Amino acid sequence: MNVYAISDLHLSTNSEKPMDVFGGNWEGHFEKIKKDWLEKVQNDDIVLIAGDISWAMKLPDALKDLELLADLPGKKVFIRGNHDYWWNGITKLRDLAPNDSFVFLQTDSVKIGSFVIVGSRGWTSPGSPDYTEQDQKLYLRESERFKLAFLDAEKQQKEGDKLIAMIHYPPFNLKREDSNFTTLFEEKKVDKVVFGHLHGSVFFPLLSEKNGIEYHLTSCDKTGFRLVKIY
User: Fold this and answer.
1) pLDDT digits over 75-90, tens only?
2) What's the structural domain count of the chain?
């Protein structure tokens, strides 16, 4: 069983927001992702998708985007991104998932094989450009949501299991300073963290290490529209 990750797919089956307006490299971006996916992923593998899945505003339209992934191999684990406005009500979303290969995390966890995966959206961390008082409120709220996710994970994790955290926003600022998120990840002995959100010319390494934890940036344009192998 391999674990792959990618984020920020920004699918737009029924949206008037094609991603190629953000640069020629985005032209036909989903076909690039699909080709790489089919070359790498087997049915018993896991694919982590760390938010910003669809441009849709409402769930019925987002489900049409999710259908693009339905026949692709692997167990697909999703968290919400800041643009996933259609993600409103986790129970309904889980009930309407295209098939049983879809797992949606919202301040909780899932165990697949020897991997326990926790996930929540997160938020901009202190020390980031333009960090405001409003960001502080959301940052603290998201920190509490991650604590709930880890409480759920503790019920499932056995000795020898690998613990993976999914967060949409970078869990630290561009200087990689400590945050509530990184402190919690270290406290809970997370093995690896997957995040996205960053695009374009913003420089950030695809793989970094902080206090023994690997952090993988998986925004699809940053990875050349290829899945990143995490395990």
Assistant:
1) 999 999 999 999 988 9
2) 1
